[in-house]
Amino acid sequence: MFHTRATLCLTLLMATSALPVAAEQWRLETGYDLPRRAALLPIKAYSGPVIAQPLSSAPLFFGATASHSQTLKADAVTGDFTAELWLVDHVNQPVGVLMSVGDARFGYYDRTAAFGGTDKLETYKMRDKAFKGRWHHLVLVREGKTLRLYNNGTLIGEATANSQGGQVRLDSYLSNEAFMQPANLVHMAGIEPRALNAAEISERFTSHAQRVEDGILYADRFHFTQPPYLNMPQTDSIELSFEFDRVAVAEVAYGETEDTLKVVPLSANARLNGLKLEGLKPDTPYFYRVTAKDAQGGTIDSGLLSFRTAPPAGQPFVMVISGDTEARPHINNRMAELMWEERPALLAIVGDLTDGGSKTNRFEWTHEYFTGMGHFFGRVPVIATPGNGESELHWYNHYHRQPQPESYFSMVYGDVEIFVLDANLDEREKESAGFRERQKAWFDGALKASKSRWKIVMHHQDVRTSDDDDYGNSFRTRSRHGDSDVQADFVPLYEKHNVDLVFFGHLHAYERSWPVRGEKADPKTGITYVQVGGLGGNLEDFAPNKPWFSTKTVRAHHYVSLHVSPEKIEARMVDADGHLRDVFSVLPRNDKR
Questions:
Q1: Is 274 within 8 Å of 239 (Cβ atoms)?
Q2: CA-CA distance, 1 to 369, in Å (whole number)?
Q3: Does pTM surpass 0.90?
């Protein structure tokens, strides 16, 4: 199955060969899952105590106090050894980890590596020495009285130390990042009772790096690299996709109860699989399970999952919307837990699903996006907008079963028609001349043809924002308050066709406008613009002076729930602490009745 359930999960793996795995290896796992009966697995067994709070002897590291401590090996390690850490730093705040083998220590803090004995640590700046800009394979070798530190297969430091053997432990320094766990920084720790040479260390790094390149999380198990992912829910169908770490033959079973599941075998022998479940009833719960077998006879089972088909027009429903999941699985998991309490029918994400998930950075999808919210995506269907973080859309198109080849489309859901626009205007125009005019012509026609009670638009780049520095340093000069190209292409059509709500992200904070029309507040006929860059992106700030269009600002991770009925849309903004921070309503215009 594809996830475990625990605050901290530490699994001991014993090596089956000398390379490329350490003799003893501890794989740190987040254990992200939905709570209570929605959870798929019980807590997984692990080796050794895991302590949620730091040990009393945890040292200060770069002046920081440990937030978590873990004893990896209670038996003393003596003589020569090799210790390793495989870690990824994709956050903006200083975080770190320190691994100790007796009084020999090495670690990482805020893009700086350190190693040495009890009294002194040598430090090395690492800002340009990460694999794909994020990953470090730090290896400490003790050979006699010599300590050597390697980063990503390259020797970076050597020292003499009369270090004594002792227990193996891990202290993590994560207090600057809310909800962060050691497993969000350290994917693996290992120890071997011998001094590896440079060639062996390089080979081990190459093995780790290749898995990241291929979007594979674990070397030792058959697993989902894209857990079951629901897209495009309709009254009679839904799209489902999933991907494994290896080629496998899969089947999907689905039905209205667990006892009446019918099996749909998939003929493709592939990593990525997908299908459209059709012939469904409107507004009806369905249950499903994904299973597969690989060439070696290994099996995988998603567990029993569920979804609900779209309601017919006139039926109320609740959906949630936010954006900029980006690089923090720990924040996205927290927001998924909160959104799950709403039991939403649909999740809309307004772009930047990844921070830079281009063709060369598949890991931002497999190791971050799906790790943080994969447990949610198997139960709540997603409609996603492309952002600048999706770059050339290689993996965005790979992992989504949404209309193609163009990156804009609409979807009717109950009384709402949701219009998904691609606001990466300069980039798309360079890729395909005439894109902007094609999108505008399509959008104009789609709005004109829409018969839905409510028209909601979502795109990534902003229309109106009081962000402090993206459009000029507002603490020193005047801000332009938004993307002029987006305003030029979209706003006239919003106003021409009486769009009700416009959601966007790009800036990582919450902001709501007054109802606006013709560059002035208009409570009767205006359009409400809502900035919802509230998921895993690094929080941004606001200008010191509120512009005329802005009525509510909150600097916090967040989501917005939309409670939709034919009579009104009520919106509620909730922050990462579960606090209600804003409420507003949208009523039908007289000319829409």
A1: yes
A2: 18
A3: yes
